[in-house]
Write a structure and sequence with these properties.
Length: 264
């Protein structure tokens, strides 16, 4: 395992210890609402601090981009290494005791994601990838699904919950994808949805208005598992623009054909 990936795994497990301890009594967790249907808990914040502590101890000069604490002061100082962190992707699920959430940590080096960890603490499933070295679930090599027809494909998605003005457009996408695919699923944690595409549990995934910490780690898992990730036009500038389609190659091209009218 690459040393930087090993550090990221250590950080994810440290955060998961905090999350698992809190999950036994979620009713006692202090919850703050950031926006409509967008929550943060003291557990998110504690888990994020634990992740950053591990990363900073190993790599004190690296920059940080994290969901709760934002960007470190050296992010824009031509820093070649940027850790992109979501301490609990799926906070709403977590505070309801719905077991679909994950720790997501990605490392961006010179503009490319090179290391990725998505850890599901409820199932003890550790998804990892290093650029050029493949993607793994625990010790098992991952490959995207082999289905080649969208009509046979199970597709993951997420709908807008902070920008309800986008809901009307999403309903149109939902309708057309429901008609074209075997089914849609919206579990509520994008990093896990992307990991599931890498593992072949989902054939594809699409969502708009995501943040880098939702996608960074999951995107590398998919490309290292043989899949493709792009925006709604099929281009590669999805990470900081927020609109993403991810799938096996044949399903990806069919999803682009269906969803490209919604690009932009």
């Amino acid at each position: 395992m690459h040393p930087m990936l090993n550090t990221a795994v250590k950080a994810a497990r440290r955060a998961a210890t905090i999350i698992n301890r809190a999950s036994f009594d979620v009713d006692q967790i202090k919850v703050t609402q950031k926006h409509h249907n967008d929550f943060v808990t003291e557990v998110d914040q504690a888990a994020e601090r634990a992740i950053i502590d591990v990363l900073k101890q190993a790599y004190p000069d690296h920059a940080i981009l994290a969901e709760e604490s934002g960007a470190s002061s050296n992010l824009h100082d031509e820093n070649e290494h940027v850790w992109i962190i979501d301490p609990i992707d799926g906070t709403t699920n977590f505070i309801h005791g719905f077991p679909q959430y994950a720790v997501s940590i990605g490392l961006q080096y010179r503009g490319q994601i090179t290391q990725a960890v998505v850890f599901d603490p409820t199932r003890n499933e550790l998804f990892t990838a290093s650029k050029g070295a493949g993607a793994y679930l625990n010790d098992k090599r991952l490959r995207v699904a082999k289905r080649d027809k969208l009509s046979d494909a199970l597709i993951g998605t997420g709908f807008p919950y902070t920008d309800l003005s986008a809901l009307e457009e999403y309903v149109k996408m939902f309708k057309v994808m429901t008609e074209k695919s075997a089914g849609l699923r919206r579990p509520g944690a994008a990093s896990l949805d992307l990991a599931y595409v890498a593992a072949g549990r989902l054939d594809g995934f699409f969502e708009k208005k995501l943040k880098p910490w939702d996608m960074a780690a999951g995107s590398l898992l998919i490309t290292e598992a043989g899949g493709i990730v792009g925006n709604f036009s099929g281009d590669a500038d999805y990470l900081y623009h927020g609109d993403v389609i991810a799938a096996s190659p044949k399903i990806f091209s069919q999803m682009i054909n269906v969803l490209s009218p919604f690009a932009g």
